[in-house]
């Protein structure tokens, strides 16, 4: 996962949520079909894809996909 487009493709492929670049800054409540369980699934997928741990409390405090992407790509 090297770009925001890769991140969105990962969400579409792994979670089955049809997100686009327009959804990246939207609050999770504004994303059609989003459920809080998807956030935990996304965390698991991101840890697998990046090969590193991502803070669960930080992910749970995120309000949008952009925040999660930032956490996943932080050095």
Percent range for helical residues? Answer: 55-70%
CATH architecture: Orthogonal Bundle
Q: Uncertain runs with pLDDT below 50, 5 residues or more? A: none
Q: How many separate structural domains? A: 1
Number of helices: 4
How many β-strand runs? 0
The first-to-last residue Cα distance is: 13 Å
What percentage of amino acids are in beta strands?
under 5%
Write the CATH fold name: Non-ribosomal Peptide Synthetase Peptidyl Carrier Protein, Chain A
Q: Largest sheet at a glance? A: none
**CATH homologous superfamily annotation:** ACP-like
Give the CA-based shape: globular
H/E topology pattern = HHHH
Rg computed from alpha carbons, rounded to a whole number of angstroms: 11 Å
Question: For this structure, what is the CATH class?
Answer: Mainly Alpha
Backbone structural class: mainly alpha
- Return the average pLDDT rounded to an integer: 95
Structure explained in plain terms:
This protein is mainly α and about 80 residues long. The protein has a single domain, classed as Non-ribosomal Peptide Synthetase Peptidyl Carrier Protein, Chain A. About 55% of the residues lie in helices and about 0% in strands. It is built from 4 helices and no strands. The chain is globular. The relative contact order is 0.20.
Gist?
56% of the residues lie in helices and 0% in strands. It has 75 residues and is mainly alpha-helical. Helix 1 packs across helix 2 (36-50).
């Amino acid at each position: 996962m090297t770009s925001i487009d890769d991140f969105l493709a990962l969400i579409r492929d792994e979670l089955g949520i049809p997100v686009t670049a327009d959804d990246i800054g939207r609050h999770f409540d504004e994303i059609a079909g989003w459920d809080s369980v998807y956030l935990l699934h996304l965390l698991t997928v991101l840890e697998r894809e990046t090969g590193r741990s991502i803070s669960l409390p930080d992910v749970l405090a995120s309000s949008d996909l952009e925040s999660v992407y930032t956490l996943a790509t932080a050095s």
